[in-house]
Amino acid sequence: MTLSLMPLSQDQTAWLHDAASAYFRELVPDRAGPPLQEVTDWFEDPDIYPLLVSQSDQRVGFALIERTGTHHELSEFCILPDWRDAGIGTHAATLCFARHPGRWALGVAKALPGTIRFWDRLLPSLPAITRLARGPALTPYQCHSYTFDYKGAP
User: Fold this and answer.
1) What residue ranges are annotated as transmembrane (predicted)?
2) What pLDDT is attached to residue 32?
3) Which of 41, 74, 134, 151 has the most C-beta neighbours closer than 10 Å?
């Protein structure tokens, strides 16, 4: 089975909105998911990259990468529940980083212990990551964050 990471198109806005809403219900139970207009705006902003994670032509997740003046941020990363614990997240995250070599940041959500373990294990294990530093949470819904450089192919 082939895992791929490709840009989402605006005709997939409804799917992305539904997937993002379910994802936010998991991570931030007291906050509604993004309004449809916010998801639509992701496609209009040249510094935001909405990406589809697919496995053998099935939608298995999404990622949202934001470009800032100094780095890229993996602001949202979701592997759908039925596809977790199969190595897909590891491969998909690596593909995200490889799309934009250089400086990165990401916040680690505190609502799901599996998410914390995933990032805390994955990032130090990737040989293409250098200057890995753990920092404070970027939002109230996170337990901590990471900054790092990514150099290399997936």
Assistant:
1) none
2) 78
3) 74
